[in-house]
Amino acid sequence: MSLQTIKSISGKLEYVLLPVAVYRSLQTKIDKQVKEAEKSTKSNDYLPFDPAYYVDNPVALARIRAHVRQAELAKRMGVSQAYISKLEQQIKVSPQVLSRVHKALKTKSR
User: Fold this and answer.
1) Residue 37 — pLDDT band, cuts 50, 70, 90?
2) Tens digit of pLDDT for each residue in 56-72?
3) Which helix (H) or strand (E) holds 76?
4) DSSP the chain
């Protein structure tokens, strides 16, 4: 049996691929170590993921927070998905457009 390794671009060893049978035999030990690691870390060491840290466009941010895909928002607004994509690429969005997006996100799919 041979294990396959995957290195990062810098050459550092990142992952090990192993057969499922080997993984299953080690799974209880892995689970135990993960639980111990979770107990030993403080809960305030990690920040929850917030799209606002990564998404600047208010249309995209509102859509992501509403868990709606571009195609669904387009359908609700009566426009094309391409139009929504263009809106999300803009640096500035008018208050009128933001209002339409907000109303569309509040409504259910047609």
Assistant:
1) confident
2) 899 999 999 999 999 99
3) helix 70-77
4) ---EEEE-TTS-EEEEE--HHHHHHHHHHHHHHHHHHHHHS-GGGSPPP-GGGT---HHHHHHHHTT--HHHHHHHHTS-HHHHHHHHH-S---HHHHHHHHHHHHSPP-
What is the identity of the amino acid at 71?
A
pLDDT of 46 strictly over 70: no
**C-alpha span between 21 and 39 (Å, rounded):** 28
Q: Is the dihedral of CA 14, 20, 21, 27 positive or negative?
A: positive
Q: Which residue has the higher pLDDT, 85 or 54?
A: 85
C-alpha separations of 4 from 7, 19, 26, 30, 108 in Å: 10, 10, 17, 19, 48
List, in order of start, the domains of the chain with CATH numbers: 4-44 (no CATH), 51-106 (1.10.260)
